[in-house]
Write a structure and sequence with these properties.
This protein is an alpha/beta fold. The protein has eight helices and eight strands. Strand 7 and strand 8 form a beta hairpin. The radius of gyration is 18 Å and the shape is globular.
Length: about 260
């Protein structure tokens, strides 16, 4: 969208985002792009809580959030949008409340369900960018298929134990998630070892990748996979290429 068609900032927004508008290459134009943007984050657990929180803090205009179930004690070591007082109540309601406390200007679409093949297309249609943070591969792959079909960028944020991974998918230009992992590994388990600090770090980095893609600053991780090992504090970046035979983004699937 041309800069002159982007929404203006209010005096309150100028005061709130003043310091980040000092970032080179971002400025007021970048802030107006964030205000105009709509992002899907699923889920808003350990990784997604941090991603959604920092997007809300940065002044994103609209968040579409998908996460089913109620808050459990085991959520509280990492899911920063959940609270002790919310135990036994809806996770998505807790997330919405916490985000509105941070940014009352934020438009939130709260979906009390997990992403699936049945709803992925409708959810992705409501946004311009996807941040995939779900623990299950099936949910991520559903978001990936919908994002590729609708030609919308996707930021994939993943972690396990003390390791994390991050990459960006630009449909038609880069590898998609199905190029890397075509289907859910049979040995994958829903519950896995996790520190909140690891999940939060990956989620915050994912939020920054989304901000870069929306505002046009920096070099997003397109065609690259960042791998972080917090046991050793070693990071690696791997170049990844599209699979021409990929059933989602391969040459035969392009229109």
């Amino acid at each position: 969208m041309p800069a002159d068609e982007l929404p203006d900032l209010t005096d309150e927004e100028r005061a709130t985002y003043e310091w980040q508008m000092w970032v080179e290459g971002f400025g007021e134009a970048g802030q107006r792009r964030l205000k105009n943007a709509s992002v899907l984050v699923s889920r808003v657990g350990g990784v997604g809580s941090a991603a959604a929180y920092y997007l809300a803090a940065a002044g994103i205009g609209r968040l579409v959030l998908a996460h089913g179930g109620d808050v459990r004690p085991s959520d509280l070591n990492r899911q920063l949008l959940m609270t002790h007082a919310a135990l036994g109540t809806s996770r998505i309601a807790s997330a919405e409340k916490r985000l509105r406390e941070l940014n009352p200007r934020l438009d939130i679409v709260a979906v009390n369900d997990q992403v699936s093949d049945a709803n992925a297309s409708d959810l992705v249609a409501q946004c311009e960018l996807v941040v995939a943070c779900a623990p299950r591969f099936s949910e991520r792959l559903a978001m990936n298929r919908a994002a590729v079909q609708q030609k919308k960028p996707l930021v994939n944020c993943a972690m396990y134990d003390l390791q994390g991974e991050l990459t960006c998918v630009l449909p038609g230009r880069s590898a998609c998630l199905a190029c890397l992992t075509p289907e859910e590994p049979p040995t994958w388990k829903r519950e896995f070892p996790v520190f909140g600090a690891v999940a939060g770090m990956i989620g915050a980095m994912g939020a920054m990748e989304a901000i870069k893609l929306i505002s046009g600053i920096g070099e997003p991780l397109v065609g690259r996979l960042l791998m972080v090992d917090l046991r050793t504090m070693v990071t690696r970046t791997m170049i990844i290429a599209r699979d021409p035979q990929c059933p989602v983004c391969g040459v035969k699937t392009e229109r």
